[in-house]
Design goal:
alpha+beta, Aminopeptidase, 7 strands
């Protein structure tokens, strides 16, 4: 499994967007808007490759001393294979390299146990986002 940063607008990014849309948006009957994708020019894009196939992705958003991790997905058939956990470690390393002291995400209720398993802590109560309950999860760096 290889992880790397990919370029916004490139072919790998387009594949990553399709994967995110298939897993995160289509089940909700929605798609990424042009504005959302345009905003991603300011973000860092992580992709995970298994035998040259893009099978996992995440978006990192620098915010002051923190890094927000969002749009995290692994191909359905590869879940429970440690790819997501390894991608978390890669994202955390990028946060450290960018002098961030905290990495956080808005975890869907169905993903909270995954983040807990990866040593993330919950903060506050559940809140609605995209019509689904989410929980703020974070990890201090260093």
């Amino acid at each position: 499994m290889d992880f790397k940063l990919i370029t916004h607008g490139g072919e790998e990014w387009k594949i990553a967007v399709r994967l995110r849309e298939d897993i995160l948006r289509k089940p909700l009957g929605s798609f990424f808007t042009t504005e959302e994708l345009e905003e991603e020019k300011k973000h860092m894009h992580v992709a995970g490759f298994l035998e040259n196939e893009l099978v996992a992705t995440a978006v990192l958003v620098p915010e002051g001393n923190s890094m927000k991790m969002q749009r995290v997905v692994v191909k359905d058939e590869l879940r429970s294979s440690n790819i997501g956990s390894n991608m978390m470690l890669f994202c955390e390393q990028i946060a450290i390299e960018n002098n961030k002291t905290r990495i956080y995400c808005h975890a869907r209720d169905t993903a909270v146990n995954f983040y807990l398993k990866n040593n993330y802590l919950a903060e506050g109560d559940y809140f609605p986002e995209d019509g689904i309950p989410h929980l703020l999860m974070y990890k201090e760096m260093g």
